[in-house]
Amino acid sequence: MDDGLPDAELLRCAQSGDVAALGVLLQRHQAPMRAVALSVLGHGPDAEDALQDSALTALRRIGDVRDPAAVGAWLRAVVRNTCRMRFRRGSTDVLPGDLVSPRADERPDAVLETHALRDWIWTALGTLTPPLQLVLMLRHFSDVTTYDQIAAACGLPVGTVRSRLHQARAKLATALLTTAEREHDSAALRHRASHREAVDTLAAAEAGRFADVVADRWSPHVTLTGQGRTGGRDLLLAAMDADLAAGVRQRPVHAVAGAGVTVWEMDLSNPRDDPAHCPPSVVWLMRTRDGRVDRLRLFHPVAP
After folding, report:
1. Across-strand partners of 256?
2. Mind listing the pLDDT tens digit of every residue in the chain (304 residues)?
3. How far are the Cα atoms of 76, 118, 170, 202, 242 from residue 207, in angstroms, in the given order?
4. Where do the DSSP E strands lie in 70-183?
5. E strands of 52-177, at which residues?
6. How far, in Å, CA of 45 to CA of 162, rounded?
7. In the beta sheet, which residues pair with residue 225?
8. How large is the greatest C-alpha to C-alpha distance in the chain, in angstroms?
């Protein structure tokens, strides 16, 4: 992408799905965007967080710009609005509504599915370390979204979750610029493949073949944690067998897969004679290495 093109031409390219053009625009206007953040929030982490949030909001809303010559003013306005929202709420922990949930009835990943920049965002996300990927994936692409829920899911203090989200957003903003001209794999295809794997895994378990799936796709040294238990493959197989014997069934409802990190959300159904045997849902948080799952943490979400 020619970084000497005028803003208007870069905007037209960006709105046509050219992620490199949008990367050039964000880089070109980074200094004035930061100046706006500093003027509203002063020097410190609040301004940097607002700048990162604004860049992510701009990615999703670039199609809203109607005057190509005014894209710089539009980007500064996005920063100003983000800063004012943070200032009014008096919290550095609130992520911008545009990215978290544009509508009450619409999941964040559904919004990105319709946006040409979806795959770019997931490519950039994949450059982060697994711990940073996981907190962002939960926060933005699952129903485990509050700080308390994420902390419980990951087995971390709430303060650590906040710190990791701050680090993750900062690194993601940088990664978006450095990955703009890369080839971006289809995130939608990866998520659908992961959902299919979840369906197949549960079907195999109900057919008595869970041990075969684990032997084929999971590390022999896999670690299972959660629900007050820690163990390896034997515990994993025993836990699944116990649930099935009790009449508990799992149904995959959502799956997202990053680079070495996968999240499966399951609905649980209990036997009629023991309707309170298990909570209504469970989340599988998995880490993969060399194509095999080597760590699984199970978490039962509690409504916030």
Report:
1. 263
2. 566 789 999 988 888 877 778 888 888 998 999 899 888 888 777 787 788 778 877 877 888 888 888 999 999 999 998 888 776 655 444 333 333 333 334 444 444 444 446 777 888 889 999 999 999 999 888 889 888 999 999 999 999 998 998 888 878 877 876 776 666 777 888 999 999 999 999 999 999 999 999 999 999 999 999 878 899 999 999 999 999 999 999 999 999 999 999 999 999 999 999 998 899 999 999 999 999 999 999 999 976 5
3. 57, 36, 45, 9, 14
4. none
5. none
6. 12
7. 230, 297
8. 70
DSSP-assigned beta bridge partners for residue 223: 295
Q: How many other CB atoms are there within 10 angstroms of residue 35's CB atom? A: 14
At 74, the amino acid letter reads: W
Distance separating the N- and C-terminal Cα atoms of the chain: 45
Tokens describing residue 101: 């949930």
Q: Which residue has the tokens 């711990």?
A: 131
Q: Distance (Å, rounded) from C-alpha 244 to C-alpha 116?
A: 42
Can you point out the beta strands (E) in 128-226? 218-226
Report the alpha-carbon distance of residue 74 to residue 295 in Å, rounded. 44
- H or E element, residue 289: strand 281-289
What is d(CA 124, CA 176) in angstroms, rounded to the nearest whole number?
A: 5
The rounded distance, in Å, linking the Cα atoms of 131 and 144 is 15
CA angle 248, 226, 268 (to 5 degrees): 25
pTM, to two decimals:
0.70
Give the CA dihedral 242, 244, 249, 253, nearest 10 degrees.
70
Nearby residues of 123 by Cβ (< 8 Å), 6 or more positions away? 179, 182, 184, 185
